[in-house]
Specification:
The chain has 5 helices and no strands. It has 105 residues and is mainly alpha-helical. It has one domain (29-103). The radius of gyration is 16 Å and the shape is globular.
Length: 105
């Protein structure tokens, strides 16, 4: 779920190190795998000018329609809402990281 970062953490855990991130890793419900994967796929297409920009509505819509082939409008809206919520959370965290690194300099 965390890609390369998870593999690195698992290697540390295999060496006997305590890895709180893995010990406290939240469980992703199976019905949200597609949403989680959609967010991370779309995250790679994100515009970054002076700071990361929100995912574009057209990109999210296109992914849901053309990659996941979602036809049901209620399910589409639910997936869209989940992806934009993940995006807002990610952007907030990135802003917090930038603020923290600016204040420590």
């Amino acid at each position: 779920m965390w890609g390369d970062k998870e593999r690195t953490l698992r290697k540390a855990q295999d060496r006997g190190e305590s890895v709180p991130a893995l010990e406290n890793k939240p469980e992703l419900f199976p019905d949200l795998y597609n949403v989680w994967n959609a967010f991370w796929s779309l995250n790679r297409t994100r515009l970054c000018l002076f700071a990361p920009q929100a995912l574009q509505v057209v990109e999210i819509t296109s992914y849901l329609e053309k990659v996941l082939h979602i036809k049901d409008i209620e399910f589409f809206q639910s997936c869209f809402m989940h992806i934009t919520t993940l995006d807002n959370t990610w952007l907030t965290e990135q802003g917090n990281k930038d603020a923290d690194s600016s204040s420590s300099n």
